[in-house]
Amino acid sequence: MDPQAINLNETIQKLNKNVLGLLSDRGKNIFFPKLGILSQSAQAKGKSINATIGEAIEDDGYSMHLSEFDKLINLPLGSVFPYAPSFGKKELRDSWKEFIYQKNPSLGTTPISSPIVTCGITHGISIASYLFVDEGDTVVIPDLFWENYSLIFENAYKGKVVTFPLFKDGGFNVEGFTETLDAIKGKVILLLNFPNNPTGYTPLKAEIAPIVNAIQQQADKGKSVVALIDDAYFGLVYEDDVYTESIFTQLCNLDEKVLAVKLDGATKEDYVWGFRVGFISFGVKNGTAELYEALENKTAGAVRGNISNVSHLSQSLLYNAYFSAQYEADKKEKFATLKSRYQSISKVLADPKYLEVFAALPYNSGYFMCVELKDTLNAEAIRKILLDKYSTGVIVFENLIRIAFSAVPQSKIPQLIENIYSACKDYLNQK
Question: Which of 132, 293, 344, 392 is the most exposed place for a label (fewest CB within 10 A)?
Fold first, then answer.
């Protein structure tokens, strides 16, 4: 093992041995190289002759670039063309950390790490898996989940996904969640995604404490827990009784055996899907700056060894947008549009005729909602009828249809639901 990795492990062991035990073998072995090329390049910065960095530099000291970009990008050259740090742009990381506190007032002054920039949340989940998932490790997730979780946890890192039924009696299934956690021997790895993809469900305010208590119970039994919090759709909550903060706020100061890992980003929060900018932040009870710095170095090392760094241009565009006069007003306008679509689909689905063929699963937030088909219906057959006869596209799995109301103009939502209803009737008439 490299001495730099050993030093980080010793720091983590000294400050919280539970966190060290949560790291995978890869996580224990990874480090951000402070020696070698990076160190020598840093030492040469500002010298009159710098022949260290692997970039092409013009005679005037600026990055070489094609002149066509000058017409397309209105940012300083130094914010566009050079490599960004593997940790991410410091000013962007500092701003995002401040945003976490602003959006989650329950955090108060609880110390958390500085976010590390990832290439979107998918990459963030992959890096978290790199750090915490060994071959054969169990990862607990809801039974209704984004398919990329399987690709990452199982196909890429050879873990084993175990699910619990997300819903019971129209709400979050705390009992099923607890039973699934109880069955795990050794360290617990779990992932919670709210608002949930595909269901668009976020726990109610009254449901948060039981969920947190179920995790605390694992620590009380002597287990170390890493809770991965996929906050991709954070902030998109449309009902008053729904918990509006990240559950990260409840977990990052819960217990020294519980490490909370917040995976969030600009993708949905700031409507920039193609920018691919996400963040990983850590929180644990009695976490110190030294402990967090060690975790940040391991995370940045994993990023460097995976993609080197995230697009400098995307990070710079975001940072500039965050301090524009129009930023807050624009976000409120986009949120209002999504909320109106949510309200529209809820109003349409209130018609009892649709219960003949499908019923909505609980939903209250995010981009999506799902309808569950009656047993006599075949979701895949209905999807094809929708495509061929009604020029309508949806996602199906098992007997569910996922509807991305985020992508449908409000004026077309009634027709969308009616088309699904008609396709179901068509299927029944064909039988």
Answer: 293
Query: Does residue 408 form part of some domain?
Result: yes
Report pLDDT for 94: 98
pLDDT value, residue 239: 97
What pLDDT does residue 35 have? 73
Please name which of 112, 85, 88 lies closest in space to residue 99, comparing C-alpha atoms. Answer: 112
**pLDDT of amino acid 38:** 73
Q: Name the token pair of 85.
A: 């740090």
- Among residues 275, 304, 322, the one where a domain terminates is 322
- Measured distance CA(167)–CA(177) in Å, rounded: 10
Q: Under a CB-based contact definition with an 8 Å cutoff, are residues 341 and 406 in contact?
A: yes
User: Are 283 and 333 in a shared domain?
Assistant: no
What values do phi and psi take at 419, rounded to 5? -65, -40
At position 326, the amino acid (one-letter code) is: Q
Are residues 224 and 102 both part of a single domain? yes
Same domain assignment for residues 309 and 344: no
Q: For the chain (length 431 residues), average pLDDT per consecutive 10?
A: 94 97 97 81 80 81 86 90 94 98 96 98 98 97 95 97 96 97 96 97 97 98 97 97 97 97 97 96 98 98 95 96 95 97 98 97 97 96 97 95 97 98 94 68
Burial group, residue 378, by CB count within 10 angstroms (0-12, 13-18, 19+): middle
pLDDT for the residue 31 = 94
* 131 phi and psi angles, rounded to 5 deg: -75, -30
Give the SS3 label for residue 199: coil
Q: What is the CATH number of the domain that holds 18?
A: 3.40.640.10
38 in a structural domain: no
CATH number at residue 383: 3.90.1150.10
Structurally, the chain folds into a number of domains equal to 2
Structural domain includes residue 355 = yes
Residues 6+ apart with CB under 8 A from 398: 379
Q: Which of 372, 363, 407, 401 lies closest to 384 in space, CA to CA?
A: 401
By residue range, what is the domain housing residue 198?
Answer: 3-30+86-322
212 plus 248 within the same structural domain: yes
Same domain for 215 and 305: yes
d(CA 419, CA 315): 41
The whole-number pLDDT of residue 39 equals 74
The total of other beta-carbon atoms located within 10 Å of residue 231's CB is: 28
Exposure of 216 in the CB half-sphere (CA atoms within 13 A): 13
